[in-house]
From TrEMBL:
InterPro entries: AB_hydrolase_1, AB_hydrolase_fold, Epox_hydrolase-like, Haloalkane_dehalogenase. One of its GO terms (molecular function) is epoxide hydrolase activity. This is Alpha/beta fold hydrolase. It comes from Glacieibacterium arshaanense. Gene3D superfamilies: alpha/beta hydrolase. It comes from the Bacteria. Residues 52-171 form the AB hydrolase-1 domain. Keywords: Hydrolase.
């Protein structure tokens, strides 16, 4: 049942849901913001260089586990929070509570509370608008940006069919709007872009309850991404539901469209290192878009991961971390 803090009804995922997740053995840390508990990973030596790793939809800090482990072993301090509504963070049940501006404010509070400086920022998906807003607002705290399969809304940005279809699928009558979580969970969805399942497998699960055929590695992925929501029901999915319905072409206010456009313009003046790492198989944020964006920065590097999809941290995380460590020496 939801509980209330500062007038906000929310659900809290039981700790038992996170026991034994494959590759995710980080101790939990929590920051209270307006009566709600925000979870974050703080792994590695406290006096090491700082990596701040952001997640998007429908993931949580579990997505960055491979990168965190590799960087931690190399002496880095890795911070990876779960947005409200995701992971081990509290989950307000009112869809209208969620906005991109609110997610940005929460992460700013985390950065300031931990007094993070000389930060290398890793962003992907919704982590792009939320994380890059921090670098624009507090540039003195950041020394390098690593940008993966994301965007910032601005005039002239062409939203792909993949992204428009994703938005349509989460509308009240859409495929995901109808079936999550009643027929399949978000962990099952993550089997598709990580090559552990085929579209027909998901359709069969929804249509007649046929279990998705996968191997042990696929089941570990499914369990990891399902864990935050097991037992919470439809009310516990408000956070994931609001991200695709906050895309600026559909919801300019909730998606922080005007602020994103200002951040895009401001970021064009970024003169510190910026590295683009792009999953070349992504039909949401395409290789062409990644290269176009990177070309705005004379100092940028661009690394293509052929065949990698929208979630390169999941499928190529150790490789990304290894490449980054070689790059920074």
């Amino acid at each position: 049942m939801p509980v209330t803090a500062a007038g906000v009804e929310y659900l809290r995922t039981p700790d038992a849901n996170f026991a034994g997740l494959d590759g995710y053995d980080f101790a939990p840390n929590y920051l209270e913001i307006d009566g709600l508990r925000m979870h974050y990973v703080d792994a590695g030596t406290r006096d090491g260089p700082v990596a701040l790793l952001m997640h998007g939809m429908p993931t949580w800090s579990f997505l960055n586990r491979h990168i965190i482990k590799r960087l931690r072993a190399a002496g880095w301090r890795c911070i990876a929070a779960d947005h409200f509504g995701f992971g081990r963070s509290d989950k307000p049940v009112d869809d209208g509570w969620y906005s991109i501006a609110r997610h940005i404010a929460a992460h700013r509070t985390l950065i300031e509370t931990l007094n993070l400086t000389d930060v290398t920022l890793f962003v992907q998906d919704w982590g792009g608008p939320i994380g890059l807003a921090q670098a624009v607002a507090m540039p003195d705290r950041f020394k390098r940006l690593v940008v993966m399969n994301t965007w910032l809304h601005h005039d002239g940005y062409s939203y792909t069919k993949g992204l428009r279809d994703w938005n349509a699928g989460w509308q009240p009558g859409g495929f995901f709007g109808r079936n999550v979580p009643d027929t399949f969970d978000l962990g099952s969805f993550m089997l598709l872009p990580t090559a552990h399942a085929k579209p027909a497998d998901l359709m069969a699960l929804v249509a007649n309850g046929t279990p998705i055929p996968t191997d042990a590695a696929g089941e570990a992925v499914r369990a990891g991404y399902a864990a935050p929501y097991v037992g919470l029901g439809r009310a516990g999915h408000a956070g994931p539901r609001r991200f695709p319905l906050s895309l600026p072409f559909d919801n300019p206010e909730g998606g922080n469209a005007a602020a994103q456009a200002r951040d895009f313009a401001a970021l064009a003046h970024w003169q510190k290192p910026i590295d683009f790492i792009w999953g070349g198989g992504d039909d949401v944020f395409t290789e062409d878009w990644g290269r176009t964006w990177a070309a705005q920065f004379p100092q940028a590097s661009f690394t293509l991961l052929p065949g990698a999809g929208h979630f390169p941290q999941e499928t190529r995380g150790a490789e990304i971390a290894g490449w980054f460590l070689e790059l920074v020496g």
